[in-house]
Design a protein that fits this description.
The protein has a single domain (2-133), classed as Glutaredoxin. By secondary structure, it is an alpha+beta fold. The longest helix is centred in the last third of the chain and has 20 residues, at 115-134. The radius of gyration is 17 Å and the shape is elongated. 43% of the residues lie in helices and 18% in strands.
Length: 138
C-alpha cells in the first residue's frame, strides 16, 4: 500500500483513479483506512463476488484457516462469511470502456508490483489509447 500511496498523485494527474478491494466486511475498513492513511477508495468485497468474477479468488483450506486462527486472523469474523475465500493480490488498469489493459497478478502477497513499473504501464496505456483514438500505430 505504501508504494501505491507514493505514486497516487502522479496516477491522479495522469487521469487514473485508484480503487482497492478488501475481503473484509465494511465495518473493518475504517481502521485500515486510518492506519494506512489511504488517499484512495477502499471497498469491501467480503462476499468475494468481484474477486470471483475476475478469477482472483482462492479457497483457503481448513488447515490454513486453523493456522490463521492461531495467529489471530479470523477469516469468518473479518469477512462476515464462512466461504474461506481470499483474493489473489492484483493490479488492473482499465481503459475508458472498462476493458483490462494491463494486469499484474501474483499469488505471493509479499511480491507487490513496483510503483515505478505501474507508472510505466499507466503511461504506456495512455500512449496506446491516444494512438488508437487517432488511428495511428506505434
Amino acid at each position: 500500500m505504501a508504494d501505491l500511496q507514493s505514486i497516487q498523485g502522479t496516477l491522479d494527474s495522469l487521469g487514473f483513479q485508484i480503487l482497492a478491494l478488501s475481503p473484509d466486511r465494511p465495518g473493518m475498513l475504517a481502521p485500515v483506512r486510518e492506519r494506512h492513511e489511504l488517499g484512495y477508495r477502499l471497498f469491501s468485497d467480503c462476499a468475494m463476488r468481484a474477486a470471483s468474477a475476475l478469477g482472483l479468488a482462492f479457497h483457503v483450506d481448513d488447515v490454513t484457516v486453523s493456522r490463521y486462527l492461531g495467529w489471530g486472523i479470523d477469516l469468518e469474523a473479518d469477512s462476515g462469511h464462512a466461504h474461506h475465500l481470499l483474493p489473489v493480490p492484483a493490479v488492473l488498469l482499465l481503459d475508458p470502456a472498462g476493458t483490462v489493459a494491463f494486469s499484474y497478478i501474483n499469488p505471493d502477497y509479499k511480491r507487490r508490483l513496483d510503483g515505478q513499473l505501474l507508472l510505466a504501464a499507466a503511461r504506456s496505456c495512455l500512449r496506446q489509447w491516444a494512438e488508437d483514438e487517432n488511428g495511428t500505430k506505434p
